[in-house]
């Protein structure tokens, strides 16, 4: 499988860019996206870093997705769970991304972060190695409750984690509104500019990836 190594590099690059976009959005300091609010809220009361809370949350979600929703996961799902949290902690500890105190500069940084997250989504989703744990939860619940629109399911999940984060002291503001209502448009625009059809991607399970990796090591092209 000649492109296996290239896909893996593309996946890791996508996860790093995703973490970078998250740090931009957090340091914009004008309000947090739902999952960021939840993670930072838990981080505030537990004393754990953002990355550690993100990893633990991802693991718990994966348990629910696999155990109760019977969804298949890929190597990308696992790396998404671990690496984004690790990369966020590294970026935050390095202090490379400034923390905004100016409102208008904060808006610009937030929009930049949203674009970087959209670009990152293209990179890691297009590899076909599997969705992240939060997306897998949304997909699994949509299959479980077929009468409920997927938009309502996503809104219910994000509304719940946002309320928890706000209750735990995370900052909610204009950035939250932009993240909730603007992210879909930014992702759609980015994917359109890249001519990327997300529906055309067929994700492989972790077992299929293991088989492909073995074939790659043996220099055998899978059929």
UniProtKB/TrEMBL annotation:
Keywords: Membrane, Transmembrane, Transmembrane helix
InterPro entries in UniProt: YczE/YyaS-like (IPR038750)
Keyword Transmembrane: yes
TM helices/strands, residue ranges: 12-35, 47-66, 73-91, 103-125, 145-168, 174-194
Record has Membrane as a keyword: yes
Family matches, as Pfam families: DUF6198
The organism's place on the tree of life at top rank: Bacteria
Signal sequence range: none
Protein name per Swiss-Prot or TrEMBL: Membrane protein YczE
């Amino acid at each position: 499988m000649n492109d296996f190594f290239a896909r893996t590099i593309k996946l890791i690059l996508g996860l790093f860019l995703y973490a970078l976009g998250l740090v931009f959005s957090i340091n914009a300091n004008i309000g947090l996206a739902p999952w960021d609010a939840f993670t930072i809220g838990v981080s505030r009361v537990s004393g754990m870093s953002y990355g550690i809370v993100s990893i633990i949350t991802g693991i718990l979600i994966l348990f629910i997705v696999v155990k109760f929703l019977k969804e298949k996961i890929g190597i990308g799902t696992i790396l998404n769970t671990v690496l984004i949290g690790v990369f966020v902690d590294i970026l935050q500890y390095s202090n490379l991304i400034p923390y905004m105190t100016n409102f208008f500069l904060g808006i610009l940084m937030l929009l930049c972060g949203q674009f970087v997250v959209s670009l990152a989504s293209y990179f890691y989703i297009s590899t076909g190695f599997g969705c992240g744990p939060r997306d897998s939860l949304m997909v699994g619940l949509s299959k479980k409750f077929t009468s409920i629109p997927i938009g309502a399911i996503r809104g219910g999940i994000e509304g719940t984690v946002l309320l928890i984060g706000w209750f735990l002291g995370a900052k909610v503001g204009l950035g939250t509104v932009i993240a909730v209502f603007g992210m879909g448009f930014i992702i759609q625009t980015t994917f359109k500019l890249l001519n990327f059809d997300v529906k055309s991607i067929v994700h492989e399970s972790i077992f299929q990836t293991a088989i492909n990796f073995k074939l790659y090591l043996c220099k055998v092209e899978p059929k």
